[in-house]
Every structure is written in structure tokens, then in C-alpha cells.
Amino acid sequence: xxxxxxxxxxxxxxxxxxxxGKTTVTAALGxxxxxxxxxxxLFETDPRExxxxxxxxxxxxxxxxxVADGLWHLSLQPRDEIEALVRSxxxxxxxxxxxxxxxxxxxxxxxxxxxxxxAALGxxxxxxEGRTGPGVDTVVFDAPATGHGVSLxxxxxxxxxxxxxxxxxSLAHEIAAFVGDPAQCAVVVVTxxxxxxxQETIELVxxxxxxxxxxxxxxxxxxxxxxxxxxxxxxxxGEDLWARRRAINEAEMARLRRHWSGPTAELPLLPHDPGPxxxxxxxxxxxxS
Length: 289
Known about the structure:
With 289 residues, this protein is α/β, with parallel strands linked by helices. It has helices spanning 2-6, 22-35, 51-55, 78-89, 93-101, 103-111, 115-128, 146-163, 167-180, 195-211, 238-259, 276-286, and strands at 11-16, 40-44, 65-68, 71-75, 138-142, 185-192, 218-224, 264-268. It has an 8-stranded mixed sheet with strand order 3-4-2-5-1-6-7-8, sandwiched between helices. α10 links the parallel β6 and β7. α2 (22-35) crosses α12, α4 (78-89) runs antiparallel to α5 and α8 packs parallel to α10 (195-211). It is globular.
């Protein structure tokens, strides 16, 4: 199921409410696509750098790190990408350094709508086009949570409309066309089968349709409790918790289905700490073939 829908995309943007396992699903999707013959790079912009823990490697520090044959991860700070662009345009090193370090420039980078998002997506485009990095077919982007994820996808069109023509405007239009093409870019939303994550997912689906004109390609319901089977004899209190959590999961998945009729994948709660074993287990469930 996952392979058929996502295998040929060049960019897969994974978003969802914070704390739902978005980064873990990102890593699992990367393993699925890599096992299907794609050269895959897992991409994040969170300065906390979570992907290397799940991949069992060293931190990225701005450079691609090999996880396995055909699979890498990269953590990139958009501010660094913008500063690199400044240095490429201002050929005098001390002048470029002075501009990048100036409070005015830093304030501009932080305040300019869509600029950091455009820098991150511009780097992704260069990765899949082979202009930088190890040469990959697909980037799986562990995107910011919920509303920020929508802003990431909407930013290129916003910047393109503001800048119009010219070199920067042309770049924004190119990135907007790339992100807006459903044959090249897929959106995956991750949630838990709990009240607040499901509510945010329902709102996120509506926001994606309103702001970028398309629904997600897949909703992943993560950490679902397995079906509860009452024991013949009364067991420990943990069984009561299991039954209650499963009942909540079932109710919330039913509510999600009332608002979302598109493709859905359910991933069970697995008895693994965050790390490579958990990622491999989820990858096998996402693509059991």
C-alpha cells in the first residue's frame, strides 16, 4: 500500500502534531523506500537532531550521514543555507561574514515570511536533482508540526507571488511548482488515535486543502493499542488500562474516519525503545510484502 502510493515521489513531507512519532514514521518510510530500490535521504530541520538516534548513527551536523546502502540522513538549519547563499553572492569573505553576522540580516531572516521554508525546500530540490549530496531519488522530510507543516508547503507560492520575476522569484516559482506537483511531492500526516491528535489531524487535512489545494496522500495512525481480549481469569490492573486505551483508540479512529475517507495506515504500539529496532519493526508493518 505505502509503496504503491509513495515509491515514485521525489519528496515526501511528513507532518502532524508534536509527540505523535512523526520522526519515527519518517525513518520507517525511508527504510521502506530504500528496501524497494530507491536511494533515500531522511531530512530534518529541527536543531535537536532526532533522526540520528533512530538510525543508530552519529549526528549529521549539516552533512549527509550514511545509514545503510542507499539510505542517508541529513540535518540542515535553514539559516545556514541562507548564509551560504550570501557567501556565494558576496565573493569577498570578510564582507560576506560581516553581512551574515549583522543583527539586521539575522532579523530579516527570522522575520521574512517563508524565507527559511524556501531555503529548506530549495536544498531538497537540489538534493533530488543531484546538484548536492550523495545523489538520491527521494527525500523524506521530517517537517515541522501541524500548522507549521502547512506553512512550509505554502511558503514557496507565497514568496513567488511577492517576489514576482527576477532570480529569487524564478527560484521560488520553481520550488512552488515542485512542491505543488502531486506526481513529485507527497504529504503524509501522522497522528495518534487520541482526542487532541485526531482533532488536529482533522483540522490539518482541511488546512492542506484550503491553503495548498490538496489533501494528504496518507494518514498514519501510530501507536495503536492491539485489540483487547479479556482473560479467563482476572489479571493485573494493567489489563484494565489496556482495555481502556484500546476503547479510546477505537472511538477516535472511528471519528477520524468520519472526517477522512482517504488512505490510512495503522501502526501498532511496539515494545521497543526509540531506535533502529523500532524503525525496522514499523517499516515491516508499513510494507509487509
